[in-house]
TrEMBL record:
Gene3D superfamilies assigned: 3.40.50.2020, PRTase-like
Signal peptide residues on this chain, from the entry's feature table: none
GO molecular function, one term: glycosyltransferase activity
Protein name: Phosphoribosyltransferase
InterPro entries referenced in this protein's UniProt entry, alphabetically: PRTase-like, PRTase_dom
Organism: Parafrankia soli
């Protein structure tokens, strides 16, 4: 049974848990699906909203299975146990990362154009996604914010796997998660409406911000 009607409702519920965040907090959504959740959080907190582009490194022939992730600022993480289990050579991982790097650059330009990224140094940052499976993309996002000098980093997700939450907790100052269900398999089943978020929708949500 689903827990959330859609990403907007999930964002509203997350915002209730994030009330009391410091003034000047920056809310960053992970495109694509995390941006609608983040937009609701930012609106209710009266916070600045932007997107933080992260790309999952999908296994060959299994694109939904994360073997790592990359993020803005040259951040790259690799799930070494997964790479070993699949028997992937380093040059294969490099090729996947290079391909996703091109897509990351394209998306950053598509979402932001020539507008510079928001100032991060010394600020409290809340990184939002619509759910957490392996945790690889969120870890990359958090490390990117650490590298940019964020004073405090909170990860906020409506739902997470136990493994994903365990992976992420040492990386953040706080993890806000509404549900960690037993038997978690994927994020989608916990939403009644989990339709794909388009690039145009992301741009539309970011434009007012």
């Amino acid at each position: 049974m689903y827990l959330f009607a859609d990403r907007r409702e999930a964002g509203a519920l997350l915002a209730d848990r994030l009330a009391g965040s410091a003034a000047g907090v920056l809310v960053l959504g992970l495109p694509r699906g995390g941006v609608p959740v983040a937009a609701e959080v930012a609106s209710r907190l009266g916070a600045e909203l932007d997107a933080l582009t992260v790309r999952k490194l999908g296994a060959p022939g299994q694109p939904e299975y994360a073997i790592g992730a990359i993020a803005s600022g040259g951040i790259r993480i690799v799930n070494e146990p997964a790479v070993l289990r699949l028997g992937l050579a380093p040059d294969v991982v490099d090729a996947i990362a290079d391909s996703e790097g091109h897509e990351l650059a394209r998306l950053e330009h598509a979402y932001r154009g020539d507008r510079p990224p928001p100032a991060v140094a010394g600020r409290e940052v809340i990184v939002v996604d619509d759910g957490l499976a392996t945790g690889a993309t969120m870890v990359a996002a958090v490390r990117a914010m650490r590298s940019a000098g964020a004073a405090r980093v909170t990860a906020a997700v409506p739902v997470a796997s136990g493994q994903g939450a365990q992976t992420l907790r040492p990386e953040v100052d706080a993890l806000v998660c509404l549900a960690v269900p037993d038997g978690f398999m994927a994020v989608g089943p916990y939403y009644r409406d989990f339709g794909a978020t388009t690039d145009d929708e992301v741009r539309g949500l970011l434009s007012p911000a």
